[in-house]
Sequence to fold (132 residues):
Amino acid sequence: MIYVIDPDSNQRDQLLKLFERTGYEAVSYPSAEEFLATDIDPAKVGCIISEMELPGVDGLELLSVLRQRNSELPVIILTDDPDVNRAVTALRNKVLDYIVKPMVERDLIGRVKIALRLAKQIHNSRRTDRAK
Fold:
C-alpha cells in the first residue's frame, strides 16, 4: 500500500494514476492530520510519499509523529522545496528519500520499490519477533 499525502489534488491524482498503472495499491490524503487520523492495517506492507509543505503538520512533523507512534513505514518526501538544509534535516530524521519535483516517473517507481522492500523486511522481522 502506498500512502500519498499532498495538498495538491492534481498531484495526488497523478500519483494515484501512476501507481495504478504500475500495479500498486495507493490511497491519498490532502493533509498529514487526515492520514494520521486513519487506522492503517498493520498487516499491509506500505510506504508513505509526502509533500514537505503541508497544511498544519508538515512532512518533518509527520515523520516525527510516526516515529513516536513506533511506525516504521518508510517515508519518501516528494516536494517542490529544493532547500538543501531541509533535505539534510529530513534525511537525518530517517526519511528514506528526498525527491525534488519534477520527478522522473521511472525513478519514483524505483524508489517506491526500494521502500516497499524495506517495509516488507521490517514487517517480516516484526512477525518473526512476535512468534518467538
Remarks:
- The radius of gyration is 14 Å.
- Residues 2-131 form a domain with the Rossmann fold fold (CATH 3.40.50.2300).
- The longest helix spans residues 105-131.
